[in-house]
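Per reviewer request, we include the raw input and output of the structure prediction for the construct analysed in the revised manuscript.
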Amino acid sequence: EAGGTQVVTRLSAPAHFGEGALLTNEPRSSTATAITPLVVWKLPRQRFDALLRDHPSIALRIAAELSARLAEVTRDLAASRQQVAVVARAAYGVLDPTAQALLRRIAIFGRFDVELLQQTFGSDWSAVPFEQLVGEEVFFRPTEPAGWFAFLQESVRGFLLRQLWLELGDRSLRELRRRATDALLARQEDA
């Protein structure tokens, strides 16, 4: 990632791009940037439609190419998610015990704000470890509405919930979830 962009794939001659937009009649979902000098040929929609009429097998070849690209991006995304989970577990391991305990408890929520956490955790709430967790930017991120957060990855949240269950056991975890539900319901009644 650089300057707000992300490389999804690299193409080399003879390659094509933008065919998805021609097939769906939707705007392109990505931008192509050349890193070396090249010659580009633009295929107008009318010519593309005529080619498909005259040579229907082209559509199958394009579909196969799009499918292969999608499979590659999906593999890359899965690997990236695994890397995020590894980083999050490593970051969890170096947190102080108070921050670890708070993070495990926060995991009972998919989305949350400070007020909800304070209502749910009561005297167990502490702003200092929460600010540490926000600063880490590994476990959760700001989301809408303003002041709310969401876990970056559900697998990290699942890991934390498992750790919480090991710490508390079934009965205490049910009680904590009941308090969380009560806090959520109280927020809805106030709204």
